[in-house]
Amino acid sequence: MGGASKWQSEMGIYQSVLTFSMPVEWVEENTKLFIELFINCAQRLKAKHGYAGYACIISKIRSEKNEPTEAYLSRKLWAMNVGSPFLESDYLLDGIKTVSWLTAINNEWFNKIREQEALNSELPMSWFIGYDYGTGIVIQAGNLPLSGSDEVDPLPAPYVLLNRILKPLRVERIQTLHRGNYDTEEIPLLKGYRAEAWMKRFDIKDEQKLEYFGKLQSEPKLNSKHAFLDRRVDWNNPSDRL
Description:
There is one protein chain. The protein is α+β, with helices and mostly antiparallel strands. It has helices at residues 6-11, 24-29, 31-45, 63-74, 85-88, 107-116, 119-122, 157-166, 193-199, 209-216; strands at 49-52, 102-106, 128-132, 136-141, 233-234, 237-241. It has one domain. 34% of the residues lie in helices and 11% in strands. The protein has a 4-stranded antiparallel β-sheet with strand order 1-2-4-3. The chain has a two-stranded antiparallel ribbon with strand order 5-6. α8 crosses α10 (209-216).
């Protein structure tokens, strides 16, 4: 956890962050417990935004030595989150950097999307669900986190389609996801244009949308073991449950 002081927060150029992790196997066995934890954290902190899915655990005392491994894995697991929340938080004051299995968006930002898109058709409720956390909404894309393995499917349809909707909320540049000096031709760190390219990895052309809607049909539909189906909220009015 990294906290900004009151005067820093009031300046509008710093923000506090919270990060936590669980083993993938535990999340698969206790999916709803993890979702509940994520929603509760977002609610208590009145989170501006956040996400949960595959990620590396970077050592705080050896972060620069760990970064090349993370950079390498990011080319193998496209849906894996990359970068340190503590390093990037001040670049993300006015927007998000990515989408994931769980994506939290505050109401102020989400209202911009709600006005622009027919969300019920863009995010079919058989695969997407929204949970109200008071000051925002958590969007769940699919039953379980997807890795985006380059050997299976680097562009999972749930993430591609969610990215299409949330793309207007994404920051244009983040400058860097890595801070180390271990940049090599074999394992380039995600800095500058590489960091921005990573953020755009799920972008597709408009004419590809139907292709990914077709791919979505092969994904397992949401079920009561992995989602709180009775807590689904109306995209157009998060305070109302369907």
